[in-house]
Amino acid sequence: MGGEGKDLYAVLGVTRDVDDAALRVAYRKLARTYHPDVNPGDKGAEERFKEVSSAYEVLSDANKRKSYDEFGDESLRGGFDAEQARAYSQWKGRRERSGSPFEREYVDLEDLFGGGFSGQAYSGRGFGGGAAPSLRGQDIYAIAELDLSQVVNGAEVSLTTPGASKPTRVRIPAGAETGDTIRLRGKGGPGMGKGGAGDLVIETRVREHPSVHRRGLDLTLRVPVTLGEAYNGATLEVPTFAGVVKLKVPPRTQNGAKLRLRGKGISRKDKQGDFFVELELRLPEKDSEELAEILRTSDELYLQPPRKELRL
After folding, report:
1. 212-301 is a CATH 2.40.110.10 domain
2. 176 pLDDT band (50/70/90 cuts)?
3. Is 41 exposed, middle or buried (0-12, 13-18, 19+ CB in 10 A)?
4. What is the CATH number of domain 8-122?
5. Which among 83, 95, 163, 242 could bridge 129 via Cys, Cβ 3.0 to 4.6 Å?
6. In angstroms, how far apart are the furthest CA atoms of the chain?
7. Nearest to 7 by CA among 54, 60, 49, 62
8. Residues 132-156: b if buried by 16+ CB within 10 A, e if exposed
């Protein structure tokens, strides 16, 4: 999180007793100042905007703010559980009061919720002041970046996670969108006692394709056509993620017209998108007086003025 390591109240320039209304005013003022649209190309302003937004996300949520006030930065870590943290603190307090000879073997919250805990500190040892609580292992978060072709067909990706001896192979089903998450139970950080291992949480991010535009499950590809193909009609070979298909262009097809290839888009669960071909009329690059004369006389062939419906 962007505010981790810094006092979130200081990031927003407010005191710890700030009320919701004043907090919102402070955030909006800073967000307007550092917004990327106001500071194009300014990486420093962009980072400050992210930092301010992250701080407000925590402090504007009553539950997150309560945990932050109690545990500080530890509450911002993935997999943090306030109840488990309180149980650990109580157990640690009892252990300290009991005068345990193993006091140097304490595992602090940085290890428990920061990914460093391995459980080895307690191997074959006793616990003074009561048994250790069962603490679930930390969830580990990873990003899987996908090309559009992988989204259409599904993909198997290899992810390297902290503490793992080898990469984890993950099958990403077809139809993934940016922000989707896949949770692999028990593949995260090791737990304590009977708490069990945490989960591996994978977020997908889809790269933009240079030629194909995605909207939901539908895909659109712009395909150039000549004057003759648009006017006389033609059969085009069009590349899709399922292979090359033949598409018939009717005579007198207008520039910008969209032709549908049903079922050639993205599938997601029980839904199937389509693949649209948007025709882009390309004029010849070479000069031709003969063609120019033909086009000058073609105006009389229009049934209506071409700009008849043009309005603002």
Report:
1. no
2. very high
3. exposed
4. 1.10.287.110
5. 95
6. 103
7. 54
8. bbebbbbbbebebebebebbbeebe
Residue pair 260/274 in contact (Cβ under 8 Å)? The answer is yes
Most confident of 93-102, 114-123, 125-134, 198-207: 198-207
6 DSSP 8-state letter: S
Decide: residue 292, CB within 10 A, 0-12 exposed, 13-18 middle, 19+ buried: exposed
CA distance 279 to 52: 45
Q: What is the 3-state secondary structure (H, E, C) of 223-250?
A: EEECHHHHHHCEEEEEEECCEEEEEEEC
Q: How many helices and strands (H and E) does the chain possess?
A: 9, 13
C-alpha dist (Å) from residue 75 to 57, 85, 243: 13, 9, 49
229, 281 contact by CB (below 8 A): no
Top-level class of domain 140-206:
mainly beta
Q: What is the mean pLDDT of the chain?
A: 82
Query: What are the boundaries of each domain within the chain?
Result: 8-122, 140-206, 212-301
270, HSE (Cβ side, Cα atoms, 13 Å): 0
Q: Is the pTM of this model over 0.85?
A: no
Distance CA 87, CA 287 (A): 82
